[in-house]
Amino acid sequence: MEGGAALEARWPVLGRHASAAVWLGVWSDLGRAPRTIEAYARGLAEYLQVCERNGVDPVTATRADVAAFVRDLTSRPSRRGGNVVSIDSGVGLANATLQQRLVPVRLFYDFLVEEGARASNPVGRGRYTPGRWGGGGQRGLVPRLSRLPWIPDEAQWLAVLEVFRGERSRNRLMLALAYDAALRREELCALRTDDLDPGRRMLRVRAETTKGRRERVVPYSAATGALLADYLVQRATLSRARGPLFLSESRRNRAEPLTLWTWSKVVHAAALAAEMPRFSTHTTRHLCLTDLARMGWELHAIATFAGHRSTDTTLQYIHLSGRDLADKLSRGMEHIHALRVRQLTEAATGGGAASRS
Questions:
Q1: Looking at the domain covering 4-137, what would its CATH class be?
Q2: CB distance 40 to 25 below 8 Å
Q3: pTM of this prediction?
Q4: What is the CATH number of domain 154-348?
Q5: Would you say 178 and 285 are in contact if contact means Cβ atoms under 8 Å apart?
Q6: Residue 96 predicted with pLDDT over 70
């Protein structure tokens, strides 16, 4: 993890505000993940830079000063187009990114309030308050937009599979497991050989690799099991030792554990080749959970499978329209999950040389 000096070297503004350095040090001492500390440092640094530019002391800043920071975020050129003010306006950060940028600012002011440096938090949270009609809500500084995650249609999914047909056995297996077990990128890349039970076709997702720090055991299909058997033969040429399941085959990092970034590059390259730039390492998880809903799985069962603490989170991951219209779909839709797995197997049998990562 980067220390305070390293963070200040990357973002010098942090070193000019003692309270910011102390706050980041507290989170570091509490054992927060390095990426979390880095994200907090980046978000707070952006806010402090805007405060300095506007001649505002961040310790005494008002809600209007924080709003000026939000305005700065929403006016930046955007690579993807939409922003919180006007959808597809071509400027500003995405709504989810805005929420992420405000988290460290809000936590920073929570710290200042606890330390007695100020009386209240200017960011706010959008908390529940009684209203005239029996209930109401106080809006947060930035309204939170909830959109269904994008998932490919059948033709788009087949286009991605066609690209993976030419990938090495490791990458075909990773795609199959990512869909079959609805794994997050971190969970997939962190799998170890002893997490697998081939006899029962089950895999263990260890608590320390999950977002919610909750261990779960999930099944995988016979078709994915066949892909696993093929890959283990290939893996044995790299290493016969127990440990990380997925290993790099590149000359520079041969037999080293595959990184998150390498897998992201593989998926991104395949998405571009399939002319599907929106396809990401998380798309397979969304697709799997939506397919389970289409098959008629109960919401709590999908939440358990996905490792969600709350079914509210699960609702954000699936296209409920597919479930609502389930009675209008053909009876074959009940077997859509098996169909996906069969398609993955057919793609895998195509083989083909792949460039080494």
A1: mainly alpha
A2: no
A3: 0.62
A4: 1.10.443.10
A5: yes
A6: no
